[in-house]
Amino acid sequence: MEKFEKLTGVAAPMPLVNIDTDMIIPKVFLKTIKRSGLGVNLFDEMRYDREGNEIPDFVLNKPQYRDAEIIVAGDNFGCGSSREHAPWALRDFGIKAVISTSFADIFYNNCFKNGILPIVLPRDEVDLLMADAEKGQNARMTVDLENQEITTSDGETIAFEIDPFRKHCLMNGLDDIGLTLEKKASIDAFEARAAEARPWV
Amino acid sequence: MSGKTLYDKIWDAHVAHEAEDGTCLLYIDRHLVHEVTSPQAFEGLRMAGRKVHAPDKTIAVPDHNVPTTLDRAKGIENEESRIQVEALDRNARETGIHYYPVDDIRQGIVHIVGPEQGWTLPGMTVVCGDSHTATHGAFGALAHGIGTSEVEHVLATQTLIQKKSKNMKVEITGKLKPGVTAKDITMAVIGKTGTAGGTGYVIEYCGEAIRDLSMEGRMTVCNMAIEGGARAGLIAPDETTFEYVKGRPHAPKGAQWEAALAWWKTLVSDDDAHWDKVITLDADEIEPVVTWGTSPEDVLPITAKVPAPEDFTGGKVEAVKRALDYMGLTPGTPLNEIKVDAVFVGSCTNGRIEDLREVAKILDGKKVADGVRMMIVPGSGLVREQAEAEGLADIFKAAGAEWRLAGCSMCLAMNPDQLAPEERCASTSNRNFEGRQGYKGRTHLVSPGMAAAAAVTGHLTDVREMM
Ligand code: SF4
């Protein structure tokens, strides 16, 4: 997994609340057996009409946001289906950080497995960043994971919280499975205990 | 120290390792797998040269893509769907996990097959690469959906990296009124808490109205916990649970049954347990409900009218404008005057035998309205077999409904079972998102009885008028 340290890029504003994973990547694209290549279909039904033409009003189709690397989103981003295709599609498009007042649980987890940093902030700070994002491509934001800080295009800084373990994994691009397998002895010991206590499982 | 909740007890019994910052390795007792979210996980394992850690605790069944038409033996037409199902077939056979292929009578929706076969038991940890894994919480099992990277993690290690959620109690006091069902309870709760109200929590549903529910009804309630944003929904196991579990193919037998039962009986929240959030609803105040918008929180009693954007505040105003436009609805329209083109009965929310009985009760001796197509899709091959044995299938066919084979079908429309653009559907499934049941399709979530009533009248209908 690619490491995440510091990112300076264009942020796209998506103020709609409850953007669900069906919107992020509609089900027709779940039929792939690969992880890559989903970026062109990110937000497909909002981004293209039935004939496959771009809908000019959609934020990521606007010239100033085509290269966005950050999304500032409305409440409860990523709700609904557990599909990891949602972060795969975001990542494939080039999105590396998403900022909102809240995220759905499974989506939030899935982001970290794919090098995407989801940031939860209070409403007034999200509003401020949303307004900054609305300024377009010259308004580049900086997300600094090491110092847990976002800098707006005006130089204002906003601190954010993040779980230390997740931060460590993201900053070092660590693979969860490898880390867990280092604890194999604990897992084996648990299995032995559980076999005694709950042999029917 | 205060007592423990049911969630605390199951959690504590499954921590295989705890780091200093509270990050745990949670041991997983049952891992359910379907064809859509697993191919990349198996591929990842193979590429890393890793093995499935506990094949005997892993159960696979194809459900999302499988055709539900009677001629499905002839294979899957759509190439990508076929490749996905074939990939599951190959992965299951190569790794030696339990597997119910398409032509097995036990095949069905993964969340219906698990409980039916006795794989899901009280006190277990159950995961699946599917958000509606919450369904299994009905047994007092800690069950939740995971992403594909986590599927790979569980395959490789039989554990998940987790931090504990907070405890939320949802109590439904008193008794339900006639015509009000488990589906109405779970939708009414989401209507009250919103789709993010449960975020960060594991919910335990309790109270007289929950105790009174059958296992089928409890599964319906827990199924939609995820729609309220919760990591999982739980209901403490009791005699109803034990009765359901006993004798199932993979349930414990003999002395093991007795040992299991003794432990299961301890799986209740202590009286002095700590709750981070408590919600109470009076069962008496719950009406048969429907959704009018494109979020499961857009819930109202069938007796209400389509709301207006001005009835809301904040970001929801825009969302409601967009939803009404998408749904083709005008504020002020009585919900029971909304005409439907299609009715879908099925899914892991309402595809069990009891749901089909409810539908049959309403349809018996009646006809599906002209111009309405009704699709009834059992949750598993065994549910289908039972519905035929009980004569329900005859009622469905006589009414003019399509009686299908088991699968997810029009719940998410990955196979050809889809709505056409702007087609409107009364559906017993769990999500009314834009495009969920077909591009530009319009979904109203309802209980099975309400779905049947809509099929007969051709518009959303208060099921109590037909009882
Ligand atoms: S029936 Fe619907 S909700 Fe349930 S597993 Fe299938 S697609 Fe998901």
CA-atom Rg of chain B in angstroms? 21 Å
Question: How much of the polypeptide of chain B forms β-strand, as a percent range?
Answer: 15-25%
What's the count of strands of chain A? 7
Q: β content of chain A, as a range?
A: 15-25%
CATH architecture annotation of the largest domain in chain B: 2-Layer Sandwich
Q: What is the average of the pLDDT values of chain B?
A: 97
> Which class of secondary structure composition applies to the elements of chain B?
alpha/beta
Q: Spans of chain A with pLDDT under 50 lasting ≥5 residues?
A: none
Number of helices of chain A: 8
Number of strands of chain B: 19
Q: Mind telling me the CATH superfamily name of chain A?
A: Aconitase, domain 4
Ligand inventory:
iron/sulfur cluster
Sheet of most strands of chain A: 7 strands, mixed
Shape of chain B: globular
CATH topology of chain A: Aconitase, domain 4
Q: Figure out the total of helices of chain B.
A: 16
Helical proportion of chain A, percent range:
25-40%
CATH architecture of chain A: Alpha-Beta Barrel
Average pLDDT score of chain A: 94
The CATH H-level homologous superfamily of the largest domain in chain B: Aconitase, domain 3
Q: Which percent bin holds the helix content of chain B? A: 25-40%
